[in-house]
Specification:
Layout: H1 14-21, H2 24-77, E1 81-86, E2 92-97, H3 105-112, H4 121-126, E3 130-132, H5 147-151, E4 158-160, H6 162-168, H7 176-186, H8 189-205, E5 216-219, E6 222-225, H9 229-239, E7 246-251, H10 253-261, H11 263-271, E8 274-277, H12 280-288, H13 299-313, E9 316-321, H14 326-337, E10 342-347, H15 356-366, E11 370-374, H16 379-391, E12 395-398, H17 402-407, H18 415-419, H19 423-430, H20 432-455, H21 458-467
Parallel strand pairs: 3-4, 7-8, 7-12, 9-10, 9-11, 11-12
Antiparallel strand pairs: 1-2, 5-6
Helix pairs in contact: 6-8, 9-13, 10-11, 10-20, 11-16, 19-20
């Protein structure tokens, strides 16, 4: 029975729908729909470009008016210098800069505040630059034959770029050209405002990896190998080639708190072959102790880079830890993205004490190049120290909750939160009942401890001198 207004329509069969779709009228409708979608996409791009340019002009004009008295003083005292740069579509322009000397205290202060760069407001008003965009590079500096380097020519260079923000907070793991290409493909006016806000915040506490010492540093008595992400991956891959078995640990603020009370864990970290700094807490502690951390070398960001390197060199990996469904999900993730990397075995961490001997024997049979152990600190580091020789793995790495992220069980914080160094806030929001003590209480205790350590002065410097004798490289 048909209801009023329904008519006598009957559901179309799949064959009828296909005939309708590929009929002359159906093909015409599809072409019109695609053309309309393309037109709307082009219009949205034009609107976004216009909004970006409007924002640049208004903001630059306001700053120019506010800073005009300082500009006049700088012009009279220092003059200006013109620096040739590559702009949008490869056009060369002259970037304006104030040549302020750093030999005097006022000069050092002005350079620290990036004041000379504000001369580029004139370039922004002229349409040669933007507030947000890839770094203005000199002619011949970049190899424009590379696809990523060419993409940066599709937009105006900027005073601030995504790569600068990530380098400032020590998470610039990818090359500048890759990050610039990412920006070109995804930038929006809303995203530009976000980058501007993050750049202001990161400028307050970031210092970049170039200001950090190499070798080993000491944070609360823990020896830290002050490596970049690429260097850490290379060290791990190199250690799969040597005869001596190696242990690798990541240390964050919570780990430092645990080691303060757990002497066995502290001895394990001191004896560890490679110890890497993980998280904003270690970065801030290093900065306060004048032992700056070069990069935030955390296991979650390292894992895909390590997988890529192991795949290229034909290495094998064993996954140990996590809930029963977690390691096999991670193995599937690896197989999909790195098909030539062999996962020679995996085992969840919820086995009984009676089953441990069988698990160790299984790992030994696989003889993996890298054993990933996700038991959480300090259990994983102590377990590795006790059983590495029995397992037969060349390198064992304690990774905490890494497997949960790559199995999809726990989502990771968005990139903008990582660029601000507040990934821990996202984790706390996810599991406040379990993590409140670790982050709210633990971080406070950690800060108090390294402030006290900083005040120890001479004793601390002696600790650092002794610990620098041992280095992962």
């Amino acid at each position: 029975m048909n209801f009023p207004g329904q008519g006598d329509k009957t559901p179309m069969s799949p064959l009828d729908r296909m005939e309708k779709r590929f009929s002359p009228a159906g093909m015409t409708r599809n072409r019109v729909r695609k053309a309309f979608s393309s037109l709307m996409w082009l219009i949205s791009i034009r609107i976004d470009m216009a909004a970006k340019r409007t924002f640049d002009v208004i903001f630059a004009a306001i700053l120019t008016v506010l800073l005009s008295p300082f500009w006049i003083v700088m012009l009279l005292c220092c003059g200006i210098e013109r620096i040739p740069c590559i702009g949008k579509n490869g056009k060369v322009f002259e970037a304006i800069n104030f040549p302020i000397s750093q030999k005097t205290l006022p000069g050092r202060i002005l350079n620290a505040l990036k004041f000379p760069r504000f001369a580029a407001l004139w370039n922004i008003l002229k349409g040669e630059m933007s507030f947000i965009g890839p770094r203005a590079s000199a002619p011949g500096e970049l190899d424009l034959r590379e696809g990523d380097s060419r993409r940066r020519l599709n937009v105006r260079p900027g005073l601030v770029c995504t790569f600068w923000v990530r380098r400032r907070v020590n998470i610039a793991f990818d090359s500048e050209s890759v990050v610039d290409a990412e920006y070109v493909e995804t930038h929006t006016i809303r995203g530009d405002v976000g980058i501007l806000v993050r750049s202001i915040i990161s400028a307050m506490y970031g210092n970049g990896s170039t200001a950090a010492p190499t070798g080993r540093v000491s944070i609360l008595g823990i020896p830290i190998d002050n490596l970049t992400m690429d260097e850490a991956v290379k060290v791990i891959l190199h250690r799969t080639e040597v005869k001596k078995q190696s242990r690798v640990s990541f240390v964050n603020a919570d780990c430092a708190n645990i080691s303060w009370k757990n002497q066995e864990y502290m001895r394990t970290l001191v004896e560890c072959d490679v110890v890497l700094a993980d998280g904003i807490g270690m970065k801030l502690a290093g900065r306060m102790l004048k032992q700056n951390i070069r990069e935030n070398v955390n296991g979650t960001d390292m894992f895909p880079r390590l997988c890529k390197g192991m795949e290229a060199e034909g290495k094998t990996m064993f996954l140990l830890g996590g809930r029963p469904e977690v390691p096999d999900a991670v193995a599937a993730w690896v197989a999909e993205r790195y098909p030539n990397l062999k996962i020679c075995g995996f085992q969840h961490g919820y086995y009984s004490a009676d089953e441990e001997a069988a698990v160790i024997e299984r790992i030994n049979e696989c003889q993996p190049d890298v054993l990933i152990v996700a038991f959480g600190a300090p259990r994983q580091e102590i377990w590795i120290k006790k059983h590495l020789e029995e397992c037969g793995a060349k390198v064992a790495i304690g990774v905490g909750g890494l497997l949960d992220f790559y199995s999809g069980r726990i989502p990771r914080a968005p990139l903008w939160m990582r660029e601000l160094g507040i990934e821990w806030v996202y984790r706390f929001i996810q599991e406040p009942g379990r993590l409140w003590k670790r982050y709210l209480v633990g971080n406070t205790i950690f800060m108090m401890r390294f402030l006290v350590k900083r005040g120890s002065g001479r004793k601390y410097r002696a600790d650092v001198k002794g610990i620098n004798n041992k280095c992962a490289l």
